[in-house]
Structures are given as structure tokens and as C-alpha cells.
Amino acid sequence: MTDSSTPRRDIDRVASGLAACLPALHRALDRQVTARYPHPKPPEGQLALLRFVAQREGATVREAAEALLMKPNNVSALVSQLTEQGDLERRQDSADKRVAHLHLTATAREWLTEVRALQTAFVRQALTSLTEGQQGALGSALDALDALTRHLNPTAR
């Protein structure tokens, strides 16, 4: 639902701009991290699952699949791969042995922390090249971007 005082073309301009800008921003940041991080980058699906488990330690495969908008069998395959690699642990539920809770290993947690630090450093450096007004506008937009993310994916936290 849009505010009636906001012209439709402005909403369309913002929607189109975000749809174009956000993936480009993600790719640019990903390339910089890949170029500077000394370890091979896991596939995007594995990364998404690791990031989700970092935010929701103890989540189940079903919960991860819902949040990541993936099929449970695909998430299960990713869990198997990450478990074999030593990045993820499955811990059986004490009440229902059919349910496993997902937990990061210390290695995966360290890796994610290092990658997040690199990402933050790259964005911080890029932000310093912007005007104070542009920096303020981006800071003010964070809440709106989080709300937009939750609207597009209600299971996202």
C-alpha cells in the first residue's frame, strides 16, 4: 500500500533503482571480499545457510528452508555438504529424534566473522568517499530497507 501523496512514478523509480542497485552492490562487495579473502568462497547457497544459522542458532532444516525460500530437500543437501566440510553440526532434538538443530562450528563462525569484518571495512571505505548528506541518507534508509526485506520475505529476521 502506498501513501496517496507519493506519486506512482516516484515509487516505480525507487523500485526500479533498488532492483538494479542492490544486486550490483552485492556483486561488487562479493568480488572485493573474494579478491582479498585467502580461502575459497563457498557457493552462495552454502553461504546463505551459514549466515542464517549464525543468526538463528539451533534452527531446523525446515525453518532454514522457509527463511531462505528454498526447498527443504535442497537445504538438507546443503546441510550434508557443510557437515562433511566441518562447517555445520546437526544436533538431535531431545524430544523428537527425527528433528535436528543446526549449529555452526567454531571454524565456520570464525570464517563468517572475518568475512563480515572485510565487508564492513570495504563499505566503510566506500562510505568515506560520499558526502555527509549521502552518508546520512543511507543511514536513514537502513530501517526502511530492513522493513522492505521483511515485506518481500516475511520469514526473514
Rough shape?
globular
Query: Strand order within the widest sheet?
Result: 1-2
Main β sheet profile: 2 strands, antiparallel
Report the radius of gyration as a whole number of Å. Answer: 19 Å
Helix/strand class: mainly alpha
Low-confidence stretches: none
Query: How many strands?
Result: 2
What is the average per-residue confidence, as pLDDT, rounded to a whole number? 91
Total of helices:
6
Order of helices and strands: HHHHEEHH
Strand content: 5-15%
Helical content class:
55-70%
- Distance separating the two termini: 21 Å
Structural account:
With 157 residues, the chain is mainly alpha-helical. Helix content is 67%, strand content 6%. It is built from six helices and two strands. Helix 1 (8-36) packs across helix 5 (106-127). The chain is globular.
Defining traits:
157 residues; 6 helices; two-stranded antiparallel ribbon; mainly alpha
Please summarize what this structure is:
This protein has 157 residues and is mostly helical.
Secondary structure layout plus pairing:
Elements: H1 8-36, H2 44-55, H3 61-68, H4 72-84, E1 88-92, E2 100-104, H5 106-127, H6 132-152
Antiparallel strand pairs: 1-2
Helix pairs in contact: 1-5, 3-4
